[in-house]
Amino acid sequence: MTQAPFHHGIAAAPEGAEAVWVVAPDGVRLRLAMLAPPPNDCRGTVLLFTGRTEFVEKYGPAAAELQARGYASVTLDWRGQGLSDRQLDDPATGHVSRFSEYQLDVAELVRFARAKGLPEPFFLLAHSMGGAIGLRALHERLPVAAVAFSAPMWGIKLHPATRPFAGLITASAHATGFGSRYAPSTKPVTYVLDAPFENNTLTTDPEMFAWMRRQVEMQPELALGGPSMTWLNEAFREGRRLRRLPPPATPCITWMGGNERIVEISAIRRLMADWSGGALTEVPGAEHELMMEPQPIRAAFFDACAALFDTRGAAA
To answer: Where does the Serine aminopeptidase S33 domain lie (predicted)?
Structure first.
């Protein structure tokens, strides 16, 4: 591990946050970060799995919330985003050749947390695309005592008219050598710079939306545009595979916004209905990013995470 850049000026992270470079077994360089060092009387360490387009600095406030509740936290830039290696000539394209590659990143994050001597038990907090990666990791025995999901991407919301053809189109593009092209209706510009606050699909908090915009304005190298056709095809395939599996035994809570417009609500409801001991909370009026919603929603979400983690940590 060698020191990597960490943009403290845009992160609002706890004191002591730092980032390192590691190289995964397949040669991809990844940026990992300890966002919150262990507080006094630390109760464990949270592995933060972020969503598509995101980067470690975006979760500085989340790390502060977790630290205030007794938890250290670590996270990473997934391959293909943030400052981790990007695989295409057009770096604005969100791309991965196989979703299984993300599990190499997961293994590096766990290795990093242990190398730093961060307290166990470990817990998982996973948002959106990170929810798909996290659910797969749980099936592959990720060593966590409990998991909290925020709007997990166990399916992607599609217009009913396009749903029957979406998988066929993306699979055909991938098979015929056009997999690196942007998915339909997406573009190189990252969402928070392209969309107005009014009717945005991420948050109802204007200050948080403005903060997310400032982050990529100040550090444009962190921004990511739309996904590639191959990424979208892999996301469809992974969602189908995950939905066919019975939920793992890991204690779980899942929260999602009542106005969710990015991931498939029915997929979340069905899987959580089958999750023994799992609990689903739908927040009226909230959008996709619960950890970026107004403070009362954020506080309630992190309180729920801490309540689960406290209980399961004591039992571990």
So the answer is: 42-295
Bridge partners of 254? 149, 280
CATH code at 304? 3.40.50.1820
Convert the pLDDT of each residue in 268-316 to its tens digit: 999 999 999 899 999 999 999 999 999 999 999 999 999 999 999 888 7
Query: At residue 54, what is the residue type?
Result: E
Number of domains in the chain: 1
CA dihedral 171, 173, 176, 181 (to 10 degrees): -140
> For the chain, first and last CA: distance in Å?
30
Domain containing 239 equals: 2-315
CA distance 295 to 190: 25
For residue 150, the SS3 value is: strand
**Rama region for 12: left / alpha / beta (φ>0; ψ in -120 to 50; rest):** left
Residues 140-173: b if buried by 16+ CB within 10 A, e if exposed: eebebbbbbbbbbbbbbbeeeeeeeebbeebbeb
